[in-house]
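Supplementary Note 2. Why include the ligand at all?

Several targets in our set were suspected to adopt different conformations when bound, so apo predictions alone were not considered sufficient. For every target with a known small-molecule partner we therefore ran a joint prediction. The input for 6-O-phosphono-beta-D-fructofuranose is given below.
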Amino acid sequence: MNQIRKIAVLTSGGDSPGMNAAIRAVARTGFYHNMDVYGVMRGYQGLIDDDMIKLDNQKVANIIQRGGTILKSERSKQFETKEGRRTAYENLKAHNIDAMVVIGGDGTFTGADVFCEEFDFQVVGIPGTIDNDLYGTDYALGYDTAINTVVEAVDKLRDTAGSHNRLFFVEVMGRDAGFIALRSGIATGAEDILIPETETCIDDLIEKLNHDRRENKTSGIIMVAEGDDAGNAYQVARKVNENFHGYETRVTVLGHVQRGGAPTCMDRVLASTLGYEAVNSLLKGKYGVMIGKVKNEIQYTPFKKAVKHHKVVNESMLEMARILSL
Ligand code: F6P
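The joint prediction is reproduced in token form.
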């Protein structure tokens, strides 16, 4: 077994529900193996600023149910520089830290990959992003909670949309990915789902809306991923309104509400599993990888691959959503 006495854990990039549950799992698995566990504040920036706290059982108690991250999170510009990374490495060495667990998304793993290569430091990653766009895991921490938040909000919008015969354009997060829009769109019976992975044709959307009008639909929900090629929800609404007057329209941007809240049971269990497996991976001498779960099996994906490969959207689900919303 790989000799590890001290580990560090940090959260980086956009926060996501389940990060606290993962911190707890990393810490408790570490304690079980008689390790000292340090929590690095504010992601890689805290590593550079030597901003760390020694975790104990008490510090990670009662956090499994809390959204956000007790370690706080940042996107560090300094860590993108070689000097910044060297300072981070020197701080880790000064504390005799042998290995590190990083929780975050593609930016976090891009940083981890360079860091591992430059200093041959032992780092493993846990996928945490509500966008769920990482290759090498079916689900990332926070995605399930985020889509449930969206579903709850859109169900409410549907009530008011129906009362007023209105069409709502609902913008959800996903700079480059439509996973939130797709799943929550299916779950709320959205009339259409616009995602960056497929080309959006406004004329087709208008044709669909005309069909809905003829079918006497009393409300409409168009789910728009923020990174859609036709623009954000306001821009899409403007384009539709130019040539369609079947419904009065409104735009709702759900925004950062999607990033908060208590993690769902699924996110808590996933976070616990991946946190536990991250420490086990280090003990087995396996590092430079993101720990994910694919088809219910633990999978180790090299950081480079997790970042470079694109997770593919299941287009047949989009087709299904269209048929079901007829
Ligand atoms: O966490 C990813 C994400 O939610 C993206 O979908 C979104 O574009 C981005 O974060 C916004 O993050 P911030 O406001 O923290 O820059």
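The chain is about 40% helix and 20% strand. The longest strand covers residues 166-172. Comparable summaries for the other entries are listed in the accompanying table.
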